[in-house]
Amino acid sequence: YIMFNRSEAVIGLVLANRLTEDPNVSVLVIEAGGNGLGNVNISDISLVGAAWGTDIDWAFPTQPNYYANNRVLSPGPRGKVLGGSSAINGDVYERGDAIEYDQWETLGNSGWNFNSLFNASKRGEQFYAPGANENIDYDLADHGTTGLLPTSYGGTAPEFHNTVIQGVVNAGGVESQDQAGGNVTGISHVTNARLPSNSTRSTSATGYYFPYSYRPNLQVSLYSTVTKINWASISRVSSGQAVASGVEYVDSNGNTQTANATTVILSGGPWGTPPILERSGVGNTTLLTSLGIQTVVDLPGVGENLNEQPLVPMQWQLNTSLPCPGSPFLLNVESLQTTLGGNVSKLESLLNAQPEGLSTELWNLHQRLYEQEGPWVEGYIYLASPADGPSTLTWYPVNLHPLSRGYVHIVSSDGLEYPEIQYNFFQNPLDLYIMAAAAQRVQQIVSTPPISDWIAAPVAPAAGVSSIDDLSEFIKENFLYTNHIQGTALLAPREIGGVVDANLKVYGTQNVYVVDASVIPVQPAAHTQATVYALAERAAGLFTGAKRG
Fold first, then answer.
1. Measuring CA to CA, which residue among 100, 68, 71 is closest to residue 429?
2. Which of 340, 387, 397, 549 has its CA 20 to 30 A from that of 277?
3. Does the reported pTM lie above 0.90?
């Protein structure tokens, strides 16, 4: 096997580990970055964000957002290091809802459902339960305890979190003991990919590679960038049997090299995998022809369906300073029905209009999520206490299931040139409406006792900014991405825009696979990391025949 890692090497190292458990299987992992050893911006979890914009970040530039006043967001951070984005992300490790995962199978992907992904996820997790004095509820049955990736809650919850939880309940929400078991609705603390004994970050490199790097059948080529797939035979393309012989890559000295293999697995992430496919002749033939690239497989779904969850920071100043050393995160997840308080007539009229760039099947899927009162809005809650002055409460409402779709496509055949990336945030008016309604819902919760008893003044948005129209303008000027990009090599039937089948094999090829977040067909109501690990563990079972979900 050749494993290509670019910006989502989380999965590549999981697969490499599981495949090389068999000594008769050889794996070469081609990694564009270094090993990251000794880099405190990776290991020290208090430095989240410090690695962004450094040499271990791809820092992908993106296009202006036409539907959001042409705002250009800061470059999207993606890990350029062994362990990929697991080395530089926000460290949150939470699963999505059973309703969402079951939609994967409903879309036409046999075997991809909540049970299979939940079992695969638990297999990889090594959960460390919180102590009795850490003020955190959990359900041990919802976690794995014998896996390779340490997870924990990351510290003691401050008493103020009880105030927030009670405020949500008083405002019509619910408290959840543990969101990891398939029902994410409610407010609860969430786990992190973190070893609690020294509060260091767990990555796919620390869990799945470094302890096993001694294996003679597991090799890693660092500072090497794959540029395209080489084909042994394209004469049988018409019958859907293009055969890869390996890949071409640029090594650490800038020299072009070739690596041969019987199987090629792309784990380049939502922004890294589609460009490799396109430069290899797999993609929309119109685009490929315009760039002088011979079409091997006409697959228009490559690079399309880019899906990203927007969020916006809302902040209040408290009337006192509260201690919050190493406190874990709170998440409040709600259905649209709860967020809008039953006032859903405008929402439903927007939802019933088929979105531009979204297939009928994916549109129907979103309608089913709504009808089943699935999770749709997340509140990411963070308490901060500066050295001087009162504490601040920041609440980030997130649209978990936006209908707008963007793209990532190459602009030339140059294997080292960055692709063009367009989020298309708020292309669909429903997405902005949901964000504004979610912001109103946060304002309602924060104005509810006992939270309101602690509030001194709003910081952003300013007092009086509370209508849907005013909040919509605030959001367009202040929203951010979550770095939960998915869907650009869709796991779905080919006729609805799919790029890979239920075995993760690229349509029209015999031995090329994609195993990364780009295949995810339905955004989970969660940060992406846990779903990506579950995807990797289940994919390992598909390749080895072992029962792993």
1. 68
2. 549
3. yes
Going through 214-363 in order, the beta strands assigned E by DSSP cover 218-221, 225-233, 243-250, 256-260, 264-267, 282-283, 297-298, 310-311, 314-318, 330-335
* Residue 99 near residue 374 (C-beta atoms within 8 A): yes
State CA 340 to chain mean position distance. 26
| Digit-coded pLDDT (tens) for 472-493 | 999 999 999 999 999 999 999 9
Residues of 502-522 as b/e, b for ≥16 C-beta within 10 angstroms?
bebbbbbbbbbbbbbbbbbbb
* pLDDT tens, position by position, 227-264: 999 999 766 555 568 999 999 999 999 999 999 999 99
What is the DSSP code (8-state) at residue 74? P
Burial class (CB in 10 A: 0-12, 13-18, 19+), 327: buried
Residue 127 φ/ψ, nearest 5 degrees: -85, 130
Q: What is the pLDDT of residue 187?
A: 97
Span between the terminal Cα atoms of the chain, in Å: 22
d(CA 302, CA 492): 12
Tell me, what DSSP letter sits at residue 491? B
Of the candidates 225, 238, 250, the residue with the CA atom closest to the CA atom of residue 296: 238
pLDDT tens, position by position, 258-280: 999 999 999 999 999 999 999 99
CA distances (Å), 346 to each of 146, 335, 360, in order?
48, 16, 21
Q: Which of 141, 230, 204 is nearest to 415 (CA)?
A: 230
For residues 101 and 531, give the distance between their C-alpha atoms in angstroms, rounded to a whole number.
10
Taking 70 as the pLDDT cut, the residues of the chain under it are 4-10, 234-240, 325-326, 546-549
Secondary structure element (H or E) that encloses residue 399, with its range: strand 392-399
Q: 419 φ, ψ to 5°?
A: -80, 170
Nearest to 491 by CA among 531, 459, 438: 531
